[in-house]
Specification:
By secondary structure, the protein is mostly helical. It is built from 6 helices and no strands.
């Protein structure tokens, strides 16, 4: 593993910088887009638009934080003097928060779907039910995969710290 890291150190440095820059850009874009859409939605009294755009902005911010944390992980691989940052040390907690956020968003979307079907007065079409169930399955699968990533990260960090102490 050490020979691979030494052999590809320039590439890992590039990946770390690219992940850090794109993570910060995504994070800032999420904040800016949320603020802009909140202002626009409040001016138009569009509460539903406010919910969707706010959750979309939060999703982009979480992706940015995930990229920054991944950049810290890559930097921790090739820089022996680097101490893991806050996102890397507590990455599993950030991922768990994102999982909770994802599941809440899925329930809100499902509730909105059911409410729109009730208000339409027509019986539910099989295609609408399939779309709703597909969205829920996607959200649950995403949550389970992220929980696995969080568990992996939680177990990886002590191994990496021990590896650095042996070198």
């Amino acid at each position: 593993m050490d020979t691979f890291i030494k052999k590809n150190e320039k590439l890992l440095r590039f990946y770390s910088a690219a992940l850090r820059i794109s993570g910060w850009l995504l994070f800032q874009f999420g904040i800016c887009s949320s603020v802009i859409f909140i202002v626009l939605a409040r001016n138009q009294n569009a509460e539903e638009m406010l919910k969707i755009t706010f959750f979309g902005g939060l999703t982009i911010m979480f992706l940015g934080l995930f990229g920054i944390g991944l950049a810290q992980l890559v930097r921790d691989l090739f820089d022996s003097d680097y101490k893991p940052g806050l996102l890397l040390r507590h990455g599993d907690k950030f991922i768990y928060a994102y999982v909770i956020f994802t599941l809440i968003l899925a329930v809100i979307h499902f509730g909105n779907f059911v409410q729109s079907l009730r208000m339409s007065g027509t019986e539910a079409h099989i295609s609408f039910v399939a779309i709703s169930i597909t969205g829920m399955v996607y959200s649950v699968a995403k949550a389970l995969i992220l929980i696995g990533v969080a568990q992996f990260l939680r177990r990886l960090m002590p191994i990496m710290a021990e590896h650095k102490s042996l070198i």
